[in-house]
Every structure is written in C-alpha cells, then in structure tokens.
Amino acid sequence: MPTDIEPLARHPKATRPGEKIGLHHSMCYGCGDEAPVGLRITVVAGEGVTTTATMKVEDWMQGGPGVIHGGVLSAAFDEVMGTTPLLLRKPVVTGHLAIDYAKPIPLGSTVHFTCEILGGVGRKIYTRAYAHLGDPDVLVAGAHALFIEIDLEKHFAGYRDKAVHAGE
Ligand SMILES: CCCCCCCC/C=C\CCCCCCCC(=O)SCCNC(=O)CCNC(=O)[C@H](O)C(C)(C)COP(=O)(O)OP(=O)(O)OC[C@H]1O[C@@H](n2cnc3c(N)ncnc32)[C@H](O)[C@@H]1OP(=O)(O)O
C-alpha cells in the first residue's frame, strides 16, 4: 500500500446500511441471479465504507476432497471487495488481488465475508476483507485487493457485442 493513501468517504446517495447493493449484471459469475453457474453473492452495505456478504459452499465449488476450491474463494473475495467501492459510487475493476488461506472450508458451510475500504490514491482504491464460518473470532481467510476506477463505457467498448444475456 502506498504511504500517501487517503481515506475515502461514503457517497451521500450510497446504498444505506443494512440494504443490499444491486446486481451489476444479471449474468455476472459473482453476483448475477440469472447466471447458469455462479456464486450468486449478495453484498450488503454496512456502516461507512464497509460491507458484508455470505456464500453457501455448494458441492460444485469443491476443490477437494470435501473442501472449497481456492479459486472459488478467490472469486468470492473479488466479488465482495469489488462491489464495495459502489458505496463511493465508483465503478471499478480488479487490478491486484491477494488471498491468505488460513483454514480449509468444508462443503456445506456458509462463508461470512466482511470488507472495508482502506482508502485510495487517484483512481486506486485499496480494500481488505476477512472470512469466517460463523464465529468472527475464527478467521478462515483474508484478502487485500487494489481496484482501479474505470470509465464504464470506455472500458467495455468493443466487448459489449460479446455480452451474454439471460434467455438467449
Ligand atoms: C468481471 C467484470 C466486472 C466488471 C465490473 C464493472 C463495473 C461494475 C461496478 C461494480 C461491481 C463490480 C463487482 C465485480 C467484482 C469483480 C471485479 C473483477 O473481477 S474485474 C475483472 C478483472 N480485472 C480486469 O479485467 C482488469 C484488467 N486490467 C485493466 O483493464 C487495466 O489494467 C486497468 C483498468 C486495471 C488499469 O489500466 P489503465 O490504463 O486504466 O490505468 P493504469 O495507469 O495502468 O493504472 C492505474 C493505476 O493503477 C496502478 N495499477 C494498475 N494495476 C496494478 C496492479 N496490478 N498492481 C499495482 N498497481 C496497479 C497503476 O500503476 C496506476 O497507478 P498510478 O496512477 O500510476 O499511481
């Protein structure tokens, strides 16, 4: 993290604490409710620039035997942390993501995520998140990520014709 990182404030019109932050795309692997295969994670706004989320560990998420695949957990952290900057009303993409895997996570468990925005510099937004299985004092994983604010139209120009929509 840079030394000149500055605190970032919640946007006045951000999703209120306790409310769900809306989907960014119905077919998104992370949040989409119509994606044929996906994590279907719903991120809930917390106080300030924090969020929470939960994810049930389904059988198809197995690395194994009997535990979640590390890449699935990584995608879940990406989703939770990437959604959190919407509290700033800033669209972002992931620049860098680092995961610490502390304990195996069994199939059938529910992973609870907590995330906070640590601050930013220019277009860079730094986040941190933790995961537990119901007891916040027993962490099973942690993550740091750098997100970069983008101009949505420019970033996805040239890709939108490849977009997959539900029912097609
Ligand atoms: C699945 C898509 C989701 C899309 C969401 C749309 C918005 C919706 C909003 C919200 C809901 C979101 C929920 C989703 C959650 C999941 C998010 C994902 O998984 S996103 C997919 C994976 N990520 C990419 O595909 C990025 C690919 N990379 C790029 O497109 C570019 O590299 C980009 C935009 C990240 C930066 O490119 P530049 O040309 O705009 O800017 P430059 O100057 O290179 O970087 C800006 C600053 O960031 C630093 N930077 C960039 N990458 C870095 C890195 N890996 N490590 C450290 N610093 C890095 C640079 O050094 C620079 O810093 P200095 O301003 O000079 O101080």
TrEMBL record:
One Pfam family this sequence matches: 4HBT
Principal localisation: membrane
SUPFAM superfamilies according to UniProt: Thioesterase/thiol ester dehydrase-isomerase
EC code: 3.1.2.2
Gene Ontology biological-process entries: fatty acid metabolic process
Gene3D superfamilies in alphabetical order: Hotdog Thioesterase
InterPro entries: HotDog_dom_sf, THEM4/THEM5_acyl-CoA_thioest, Thioestr_dom
Domain of life: Bacteria
Catalysed conversion reaction: decanoyl-CoA + H2O = decanoate + CoA + H(+); tetradecanoyl-CoA + H2O = tetradecanoate + CoA + H(+); dodecanoyl-CoA + H2O = dodecanoate + CoA + H(+); (9Z)-octadecenoyl-CoA + H2O = (9Z)-octadecenoate + CoA + H(+)
Cellular component, GO, one term: membrane
Keyword field: Apoptosis, Cell membrane, Cell projection, Cytoplasm, Fatty acid metabolism, Hydrolase, Lipid metabolism, Membrane, Transit peptide
All copies of domain Thioesterase, residue ranges: 66-118
Compartments where found: Cell projection, Ruffle membrane; Cytoplasm; Membrane
One MF term in the entry's GO annotations: hydrolase activity
PANTHER family noted in UniProt: ACYL-COENZYME A THIOESTERASE THEM4 (PTHR12418:SF19)
Family: Belongs to the THEM4/THEM5 thioesterase family.
Protein name (Swiss-Prot/TrEMBL): Acyl-coenzyme A thioesterase THEM4
Species of origin: Gordonia phthalatica
